[in-house]
Amino acid sequence: RLASQRNDPHHDYPMQYGAILGSIMARSHVSFLNKIPCVVACSESLRNTNLTNGLTTHCIRNGIALSDGQRIPSEMEKHAMRIKLGIESNAKVFIWCGPFIPRKMPTFLVSAFDKLGSSQNVVLCMIGAGPLLSKCKRIVSNNSSIVFPGFINNVDDYLIAGDVFISSSSAEGLPNSVLEALSWGLPPILSDISPHREILSLSEGAGALYTGGDFNSLIKLLLSFNPTREHSNAARSIVVNELSATR
Long-range contact list for 146-153, CB < 8 A, 24+ apart? Predict the structure, then answer.
């Protein structure tokens, strides 16, 4: 008997279901996992967290299947995709993708970008749906540089059009959304949590970290981070060399 494990129940469930019910669910989940002979965590970070919860696990990192068409897009391809999607061609474009739930901290992110204002020539595309989507839209109702494409099937088009992928999560296993962005050579700006550090440790210079929940830390990085071809090469190498499905 074997089980895969892709999250930390003690962090995720109280945030998702409330302190009392979430804590009961987390204890139950870990108790069940302890009865299974082989539990495989999706990251080294999660395996280390499990040890503090009294759970011994193995680790096989998350990976993604690389298609023949996935590569670092040329500037011409990026420009053409922005025209197709209706995105400002000369802006610095940030892509966020995921469910609009507390653990992903979307309201923090849109609030930070809203403070930047339109004068910085940046665009934030928040892809996905969920219970916090309406609140995010209310926060930035007068800011046209933050767009919400919704739950879509052409996420790759936005990854091709983007300059930087951004994750504001307070916890992760080993996020597939980040890995998909890396497969297109999209450098990431990530909240400083253990799984994000684990990803960036696999290739020096692929992206940058900011202090989670800290507006000043994030805004400073948004203004100073200038993605280059070297960033893109380093980002894609993480998936190609370490986190592909084949690997």
Answer: 146/110, 146/113, 146/114, 147/87, 147/123, 149/125, 151/127, 152/127
